[in-house]
Design a protein that fits this description.
The protein has 242 residues and is α/β, with parallel strands linked by helices. The chain has helices at residues 3-8, 55-62, 85-95, 111-119, 128-134, 150-162, 180-197, and strands at residues 11-24, 27-40, 44-48, 70-75, 78-79, 96-99, 168-172, 200-205, 216-221, 224-230. 30% of the residues lie in helices and 29% in strands. It has a 6-stranded mixed sheet, with helices on both faces.
Length: 242
């Protein structure tokens, strides 16, 4: 995406004044405090922060898996925070894709069957086999997770997420369970999906060097956004080391 395209991209998701407090017994823990964030269409946004900074809670709220204690989560004119559970579940199924540190594949299902789990509940999915071809796993469609490496399993998880044609793909520590070489393969794939399909991608990570591939970098610490940077010159994954 060019600098001009970045400047004119529209916000597909806006978080306004997001706070999240958890209460256990008489103890209250404020995990997020007045967070504002925009996710822009066609961009890669990387949210970086140490363990306990609130970044995963932020992803869970942005992705409709948790509700803020206060604030708005606006997808267009719809405030996800005001949807009931059934509406929120439907929204996640049809509009969002998720990739996690641990692959969450069905162990007794093949790669193709794992992807089909997602496409069977989506409104406008791509063909599951096409999704696996897109991530370079055409020869492994009939293999089970136990027959695949960690990197291959993560690519199945990505295929499953993108096969729904999501408006936003959320990735929570997608390289966290992988060595750096395999992690780079996964990041290269995410970069290619962004370039070729214009997929809007949000990556949550503690690994600061990964942020160099992003169009926007959000630094979060102790439940607040410290700063947001527009990266005028995202680098290729090959240039990133950690």
């Amino acid at each position: 995406m060019s600098d001009s395209d970045q400047a004119h991209s529209t916000a597909v998701l806006r978080l306004i004044g997001i706070s999240r407090t958890y209460q256990v017994g008489e103890v209250q823990t404020e995990v997020l405090r007045g967070v504002d964030l925009e996710i822009r269409e066609g961009e890669i946004t990387v949210v970086v922060g140490a363990s306990g900074s609130g970044k995963t809670t932020l992803l869970n709220i942005a992705g409709g898996m948790d509700r803020p204690t206060s604030g708005q989560v606006l997808f267009g004119n719809t405030d996800l925070a005001r949807l009931d559970d059934a509406e929120l579940t439907s929204f996640r199924r049809t509009s969002l894709g998720f990739v996690f540190q641990f692959y969450n594949l069905v162990p007794t299902a093949t790669a193709l069957e794992n992807v089909r789990v997602a496409t069977d509940i989506a409104d406008d999915p791509m063909d599951p086999a096409d999704a696996l071809r897109l991530v370079g796993l055409a020869p492994r469609m009939d293999h089970f997770p136990s027959q695949m490496s960690g990197g291959e399993q993560q690519r199945v998880a990505i295929a499953r997420a993108i096969a729904k044609n999501p408006k936003i793909l959320f990735c929570d520590e997608p390289t966290g369970a992988l060595d750096s070489r395999t992690g780079k393969v996964v990041l290269q794939l995410l970069g290619r999906l962004n370039r070729e399909l214009a997929t809007t991608i949000v990556v949550i990570t503690h690994n600061v060097p990964i942020s160099r591939m992003a169009h926007r970098i959000v630094h979060i610490s102790s439940g607040v956004v410290d700063r947001m940077e527009v990266n005028q010159s995202p680098v290729s994954v090959e240039e990133i080391t950690w």
